[in-house]
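check this:
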Amino acid sequence: MNFLEKDLEQIIYESDRELLEKKGLYIGGKLLRQVRIGNYGVADLVSVSRDVEVNYNCTRLIPYLEITVYELKKDKIGISAFLQALGYVKGISDYFERRNINRNVRYNIVLIGSSLDTNSSYAYLSDFVCSDRLSLVNYVYSYDINGIKFKSKEGYSLKDKGF
């Protein structure tokens, strides 16, 4: 059986969220599929949720909107998948800015593929892309007779660091 990107998308979109979490992938908020983001392209999956945070002196709650762009690859995830998802985030940001709703919006990029590109410096990126406005998480999936499983990939370092 040839496992395709659209199969991965269908499994994630149609699966029970609790079951997905048990398999290693948490998705919060309303999940949308094949989202056209103007001329920026079509995102595989996008989730939208609302949350609140306490301000710095704990006097009030500040609401924010959290947008997560999921870019799915049947094979290896690397810099091109990241840049593709970053383009979608930029498009969503521009859309909100045009409508004056760009305050208190946080963006997440979640890349999911069968492996992580460890032959380039991309593998280090998720350790450093985490701010108040944008975060990056990589997952690799495995699919076998027992179903699909997801594993977060972070903290990658060379085995032979040379020092």
